Amino acid sequence: MASPTYELTHLEALEAEAVHIFREVAATFERPVLLFSGGKDSMVMLHVAAKAFWPSPPPFPVMHVDTGHNFDEVIEFRDRTAGTYGLRLVVTSVQDDIDAGRVVEDPKAGRNRLQTTALLRGIREHSFDAVFGGARRDEEKARAKERVFSFRDEFGQWDPRNQRPELWDLYNGRHRQGEHIRVFPLSNWTELDIWQYIEAENVDLPSIYYSHRRPVVQRDGMLLAHTRFLTLNEDESPYEATVRFRTVGDATCTGCVESTATSPAEVVAEVAVSRLTERGATRADDRISEAGMEDRKKEGYF
Fold first, then answer.
1. What is the pTM of this model?
2. Percent of the residues in the chain that have a pLDDT greater than 70, as a whole number
3. What average pLDDT does this structure show over 12-17?
């Protein structure tokens, strides 16, 4: 009689890898934290973390780097989710850095780059030594270079030419006081994997990820939501459109796409035929230069 074989599906293999990463960090670091914006990637990351440590809650807090220009639906979802999972929510605010004079806001540039200062301040103030992020390698060229365990020096900086090998999924988290490790459990996932997992696991998301009507503005080939944070140019006129968001962030630079998808299955069908990553299609702040994201990551960005 042949012995039974046990094979994981593609999504089960990705989940198992992420569970291993979460448990490795919990076993070897003293003060980890999970970056949580309320977006789809951070929500999938939290969902996997909850499974990794069930029936106990994840043994670390979640932290949101708040630009102050967030979509109302996402902030409501963030707070509700932290309560549902029984997590301590740490919020580090870009507005606090602006008020204190640590950064200077350029109204035309948005606040995304200013998040670096708030992020590093939050890590330093709470002495976090491992920071889980939801970045994926398929999103952008600089993120494709990143290791799963990504070393950051005492200034929070990343050196893409000096990364540690990760043969056989062996991760090196050694660091000195003041340094920390960024950890990316979803590195090997794609946007399609994320949405297939959301569908399979019935993961809750903010409503703006699905088709809805809202006022939008056409700007630089993108549709931006007309919110209280967006200053209109003289030649711009808002109009109603049926849209959804592929990613969430600062409302002044996060675009939406026209869509009728109202369920995970319908979004999966859309993503399967898309030829643009969500950052390339809907994030104006990533269009600053060919190496814009890498330059920001070197400074300590997500």
1. 0.89
2. 89
3. 96
pLDDT digit string, tens, across residues 200-256: 999 999 999 999 999 999 988 889 999 998 888 888 889 999 999 998 888 888 899
Q: Which two tokens stand for residue 49?
A: 């973390």
Place of tokens 């951070």: 42
- Buried b / exposed e along 284-297 (16+ C-beta atoms within 10 A): bbbeeeeebbbebb
